[in-house]
Amino acid sequence: MLVAAALCPCPPLLVPEVAAGAAAELDPLRAACRKAVGALAAARPDRLVVVGPSDRAGQGTYPQGATGSFRGFGVDREVSLGTAPHPPERPLPPSLSVGAWLLADATPVDAPVEGLGVDETLAPERCLEAGREIAASASRVALLVMGDGSACRTVKAPGYFDPRAADYDAALARALATADTDTLAALDPEEAASLKATGRAPWQLLTGAARASTPLHGALHYDEAPYGVGYFVAGWS
Q1: From what superkingdom does this record's organism come (predicted)?
Q2: 194 near 107, Cβ under 8 Å?
């Protein structure tokens, strides 16, 4: 059963070494993430799964001890999902690497940690099914769900300006703040892709897990669009 979830964005810029001179600009976002992720420890989970968007090459499961790095972003920094005697060779995709960094930066969670890379194109019903399976995998499951909102809020955004983006992100913020699984389940993959909202599939997986468990309450800790990208931090418990 799902007992808690933390929802965070996954830009590598969250890692101060990657952000370099611009690191201070995202300090409020880091603080919100630290609060949401730190609350997972209080839920006393038996299993913690970090879920994040990936391309098809990065999809699938990653066991405890899996490692990733930020070398692709010019920083020689490695991270890992918990600890293991022999970390596997398959590297974490960027979203899970950011998740691993957040876990290391927050209050430790006394539970096995695993990762799951979700193909950004995965159909909603498949996402919901995967969430139900994870919720049924242990008595007390916690999720760290990585994903960004639209990347089209301004003309300087990665996806340029799209007039739909602000309303799209506003609806997302309301849904994440209230644990509104109906809204999240109805997110359209094509619209999400056109707005470059990478969180769609992970949020729908969370929806499947939440619907298979005792109802959770949501709280929104951060809702801003630095660099023209919608970033949200929320906690469900």
Answers
A1: Bacteria
A2: no
| Cα–Cα distance measured from residue 110 to residue 112, given in angstroms and rounded to the nearest whole number | 7
Q: What is the pLDDT of residue 85?
A: 62
Q: Cα(197)–Cα(11) distance, rounded to whole angstroms?
A: 12
CA distances from 152 to 57, 73, 115, 163, 231 (A): 25, 22, 28, 8, 12
Give how far Cα 214 sits from Cα of 3, 20, 209, 210, Å. 8, 42, 10, 7
CA distance 228 to 237: 29
Rounded average pLDDT per 10-residue block, the chain, 237 residues: 98 94 91 96 96 96 94 93 76 97 92 96 98 98 98 97 98 98 98 98 98 97 97 98
Query: E-strand spans in the chain?
Result: 2-8, 47-54, 60-62, 67-69, 78-80, 113-119, 141-146, 218-224, 231-236
pLDDT tens digits, 91-123: 999 999 999 999 998 988 989 999 999 999 999
Cα 185-52-59 angle, rounded to 5 deg:
100
Return d(Cα 15, Cα 27) in angstroms, integer.
Answer: 10
Q: Are strands 231-236 and 2-8 parallel, antiparallel or unpaired?
A: antiparallel
CA distance to 128, 156, 185, 226, 235, per residue, from 182 (Å): 12, 32, 5, 27, 17
Phi-psi region of 214 (alpha: psi -120 to 50; beta: other; left: phi over 0): beta
Which residues does 223 contact at the CB level (< 8 Å), separation at least 6?
Answer: 169, 173, 230, 231, 232
